[in-house]
Write a structure and sequence with these properties.
By secondary structure, the chain is mostly helical. The protein has 5 helices and no strands. The protein has helices at about 5-15, 20-50, 70-75, 75-110, 115-140. The chain is extended, with a radius of gyration of 29 Å. The termini are far apart.
Length: about 140
């Protein structure tokens, strides 16, 4: 009877990789990581830095105000109203649109009477603009 290797030995042998394998992984990840750091992480930290200054957006940031800008905006009635409106949009989109979208997706997949007509009406916003732009494009060509 043949003995199979233990599962832990098999997993350990797969985890061990050579330096060239790790170098290849790093070289493939490096461009994406550099772009992420350059275009996502750096602007976030730069924005936090500038938020601590009374800065006009053009010159150097020299007038340090600390958390004064945050205190000002959190006591502004217009900002509070805008924040409340954003929360309401999130609540209604998650509470109404998501269940409605899931229900329509289930209806599209079911074998119900009139399924063809329902699918045509349901998907018409997808193909109708393309059809119209193609029709206009044909008329404009000599």
């Amino acid at each position: 009877m043949q003995q199979l290797p233990a599962a832990s030995n098999t997993l350990e042998s797969k985890r061990v990789s050579s330096f060239p394998d790790k170098l290849v992984i790093v070289l493939f990840l490096a461009p994406a990581l550099i772009l992420f750091l350059l275009f996502v992480v750096y602007p976030i930290f730069r924005s936090i830095y500038f938020s601590l200054f009374d800065w006009n957006g053009l010159g150097p940031a020299v007038d340090f105000v600390g958390f004064g800008n945050y205190k000002t905006i959190l006591t502004d009635k217009v900002f509070i109203k805008a924040l409340w409106n954003g929360v309401m949009i999130i609540v209604f989109s998650l509470g109404l649109q998501l269940p409605l979208a899931l229900a329509l997706a289930v209806l599209v997949g079911r074998d119900l009477p009139g399924r063809g007509i329902f699918r045509t009406i349901f998907f018409s916003p997808t193909f109708f603009p393309k059809l119209m732009s193609r029709s206009c494009g044909c008329c404009l060509q000599p």
